[in-house]
Amino acid sequence: MASRAKATIFDIAREAGVSKSTVSLVLQGSGLIRPETAVKVRKAIEDVGYVYNRGAANLRKAHSNVIGMVINDLTNPFFAELAVGMERVFQSAGIVPFMANTAENPVRQEEVLKSLMEQGVAGLIVSPARGTTPGAFRRLEMAGVPIVFAMRRLPESRIPVIAPDNHRGAYFATAHLIGKGHRRLAFFGGSSDLVVYHERVGGFREACETLGIDTRDMLVIEGETSRKGGIACLETALAMAEPPTAALCFNDAVAFGVMLALRKRGLEPGPDFAVVGFDDVIEAEHYMPALTSVAVDSPGLGERAAHVMLKMIQSGTTRAEDHIGAVNLVIRESCGPDRRTRNRAAAVGGAA
User: Which of 21, 39, 50, 228 is the most buried (most CB within 10 A)?
Assistant: First the structure.
């Protein structure tokens, strides 16, 4: 018995009554085809028994439909939420996202980027690892691969960035602490080799200076951007002759570490030491006490980064506008009562 001839795109086009190019666009998951036409083509694909050879298609178009999502720290809930936002958009667009965690290691990041480039990746969304050099993406840029930075930028880089308004968020948070009556404040976590660190510390300092805090009462303590880092920062601060009474933390992970360290010392976050985080991850609302934090809409930023990437790929460009997302301070319980009210009450009690 003779074997059945292998079905082709021409067979599908004839069966569906459409052009060959329309069939190709449906096979590639293009959003340019009307839904009813796409349904008709997919039915024809089933009827003629066509099998799509994606590997051969990738060779024909010289790049894959894979987009790389290269994240610096997926153990941080914020970056996990960011990645979920990106993936949601890519999945709905029929794109296969490839995710890699560089664990803040620029060497690991370089290996991942090299591997993705060899695979002919269609585009990259990257949150650069700490210590990334400005030239780390030059080869990819020269190859014409679209790249978007998420959350972090590199000095003097022209690669588009999707990030929150770090300076403004830090200003709001610091002003809140000062409004609660704190006059000796600290910034905990992060390091000076990160642009985002300077943006957040800048907002902290500007709020202190604008609202009358003496420079001697502004403490900046660098540290890891993790719970471990928060614990270390608090220990350093409380060992000082005049410790601070409140801290803005580089991110929520640092803030959680600060609250753990306070409890180990028999102190209560809020009444004994005010804590503010940055990012407002899901855990912040459910922590005990609930964490006051600068909300940046991490899933929304991830979605924006994905949309920008898809637009760059479709238009064949490596250029796009930066997007600086809005921020707002979500006030919960971790800053405790107003210190001035508490001090007045203590004074009245002492007088009695």
Answer: 50
